Amino acid sequence: xxxxxxxxxxxxxxxxxxxxxxxxxxxxxxxxxxxxxxxxxxxxxxxxxxxxxxxxxxxxxxxxxxxxxxxxxxxxxxxxxxxxxxxxxxxxxxxxxxxxxxxxxxxxxxxxxxxxxxxxxxxxxxxxxxxxxxxxxxxxxxxxxxxxxxxxxxxxxxxxxxxxxxxxxxxxxxxxxxxxxxxxxxxxxxxxxxxxxxxxxxxxxxxxxxxxxxxxxxxxxxxxxxxxxxxxxxxxxxxxxxxxxxxxxxxxxxxxxxxxxxxxxxxxxxxxxxxxxxxxxxxxxxxxxxxxxxxxxxxxxxxxxxxxxxxxxxxxxxxxxxxxxxxxxxxxxxxxxxxxxxxxxxxxxxxxxxxxxxxxxxxxxxxxxxxxxxxxxxxxxxxxxxxxxxxxxxxxxxxxxxxxxxxxxxxxxxxxxxxxxxxxxxxxxxxxxxxxxxxxxxxxxxxxxxxxxxxxxxxxxxxxxxxxxxxxxxxxxxxxxxxxxxxxxxxxxxxxxxxxxxxxxxxxxxxxxxxxxxxxxxxxxxxxxxxxxxxxx
Amino acid sequence: xxxxxxxxxxxxxxxxxxxxxxxxxxxxxxxxxxxxxxxxxxxxxxxxxxxxxxxxxxxxxxxxxxxxxxxxxxxxxxxxxxxxxxxxxxxxxxxxxxxxxxxxxxxxxxxxxxxxxxxxxxxxxxxxxxxxxxxxxxxxxxxxxxxxxxxxxxxxxxxxxxxxxxxxxxxxxxxxxxxxxxxxxxxxxxxxxxxxxxxxxxxxxxxxxxxxxxxxxxxxxxxxxxxxxxxxxxxxxxxxxxxxxxxxxxxxxxxxxxxxxxxxxxxxxxxxxxxxxxxxxxxxxxxxxxxxxxxxxxxxxxxxxxxxxxxxxxxxxxxxxxxxxxxxxxxxxxxxxxxxxxxxxxxxxxxxxxxxxxxxxxxxxxxxxxxxxxxxxxxxxxxxxxxxxxxxxxxxxxxxxxxxxxxxxxxxxxxxxxxxxxxxxxxxxxxxxxxxxxxxxxxxxxxxxxxxxxxxxxxxxxxxxxxxxxxxxxxxxxxxxxxxxxxxxxxxxxxxxxxxxxxxxxxxxxxxxxxxxxxxxxxxxxxxxxxxxxxxx
Lengths: 537, 537
What we know:
Two copies of one chain form a homodimer. In chain A, 38% of the residues lie in helices and 20% in strands.
């Protein structure tokens, strides 16, 4: 059943995933995620639907090229009553300049009758025309057979005629979609097997939705039946119950089956990082229980499991978590917490002997801080500073005596309602108290600018540092006034470095200052700046 | 392959689900959930592990009887080196007074050798002894074959000998467990099929974990191979990636296969309510994308989908949501077409003719606003206000003339660094300018409190309104111009209503004020408050 033809992976996070309730990608989100998808070895990246919304237009207007993945533009087959050459939407799709196009069309007679309301032969014709036109004018044309499984169950001859029209017109891939997500694995396996008697499996793809909780199983069933392209999304993002989780499909096919893939070990190790990146971009807590890549996916509670796992991980782990870039997480054991912290030190280049008493203290500090709401997984620079400070390696580059931030919303002289933020900062630099003030487009921006004014004279290297991201999460919304705010800040400099810091406080401005302070300190530490300030703290 | 024997459902939420990190059921939680599990037609409720912790002891001490479900106590087979009759843990299990007991034991030779470190024949003996003893002293004895699939793959003869010992000793059910969750559906189907040649399928159960995202598919595969008991948990709760989601298994088997179950239509309609109840009890936001029962499971966002669903729901819905007690939900967003916006109006009770020119304008407004950074699909209350304002239905309940927020971080008299936020708000209420001031634990909290001070006198209904969630995201929609901040606020009142509003601005305090303003306005509008303020705006 398995052949030498490798299974290819087609990611639809940026198009079908964008259909998810509550998901709104910016152009910058799309650019960053596409780069990550390429890094983790996805073969095709569906970038969006040119013409459907301003975000997708902007993304394609500035489309990049990737080292491995091909960028695909998604759209519809031509409209009824037009020729493919005279359909402006189809022209827009082809002219989006992607390396390939994927066109969706109907294959369920019920949909053709009820939703489209056109003659069935016309539906077959418009698929064939559109694919032929796209195949002639782009590098690669694909056809998404919408509702294929429902259609095949209802009228196999018609459903087959539709996909055969795409095949004969030169589609590189014919993708069978379980659009409503209601088909079960044994049906998928049977139907894909029957289709592959007419269209070679190496040109068949599968696109599943998780409405019965079987999207991954359905995708695997299709591969068993011969399909060689798997479509899905990061973390199973997607409308309703989501699409097939492409990460689970990739990991399972590469690590647990005999099917060939082009994925390298290094690409598989990217899976956990890219999964977390998506949730960071969406500013939502990652689902801890995600297969392979969730934070709890290899978590072990105390007692028998832990000692057994430490004796031999295979006792309670189905794969080695490092294969997908994840790690084991031991919940209670102090010893394991120690190993965990040591492993994280090692990651940032801090080598400590296993029996160093400082490690014990640091483990306690990290645990206490994480209990307060600090999250060091997404803020490696703050974790590094915490560790280096405990070891006495980080000087105080400046002392903060006081700050005051004022946000003022009022009517200006031209009768417009404007808001202005102004920050006053009193620091001790070079042993002297310095007071600076700045305005900004928000309190954190104003605070950042006022702080730089005070520091730039002695630390000119701060001139090339800028804030690139800022995220806020309220950690205990139920606690009312006791809610804690966590601020994550990403900074960057002209040397291309990016670093993330975290601040926690009941007060958002305070939390922001703490994260900002760590951001500046990390940069100065890594440039070997001398500590020329007497700390007032 | 299917027989007249019905598939039975065994819920382990209260035992295996309680192993989840962060999950801590009280006795009251267990009692309430068990009653709900009975109501939704579960055949067996695993109540806990008597002797393992005080909660489980208290639950069994006060064990109820259910109209349908049988209560099961979970525990281990006897310890090596003791007789079953002389094992205090086994005695405790039997004396818990449940209607049945389920004992877990090892069936993987590697575990017997490495984790238990006992002779393999002794392992087989202790299974047989324990089951025989329990079968003689309780109404029903079951055996959970831990790591059965890994064991069978490694040493089928030994794994079979273990489960056959349980069968011959009188176990009503022998449950094959994929403890590490790494087995794939085709393996489960093959292995269960092979086991059912030795032990009748009507006595075989299946217990799966979701480590590859296949727990539901594995459970269904086992049923296809003959197993007639499915174990799982509500919402797939459980260690690591969770157990099989019992709700998905029940709905799929009852609604989409020919297998017989004892579930009634009324029991299936309980599924959504019980799923949400679990999350309520755990004080966490329900997962929106849960198959069948998630809030998004029947949500439609794409414009084409919406118009088709309205013509005939079968076009984009795999079942009627009412069958599982769920409902259809139309989402508004960047992706939305005219049909979505109209459907959404209908949901909030706003009826507009399809060809009303105001609809066109509103669709454009929604799209433009979403491009600016507004996200209405997570902020239904702001969407409603946007629409009602456009139709001139929402009065200005108060006018904002000015606000000023100050955040001050300084050393206090006791030598501590403290941060305080103070807000001053000038509003026009009842035609008069009112100035109020308040301090809070952050700028938004202070602003909220000052605003309420100004409004409470004329709008006393605001007293029972509170902020329940606050989220911030920085968006950089287009390169070049300054970053835009999006704030989402969730409010609630004592009548149990929750509503979400959104505010966007370059300034975070400004964006927060806008979201706050919408939150207050939504409440006043829905309570029919008269507009007693002359707007200054």
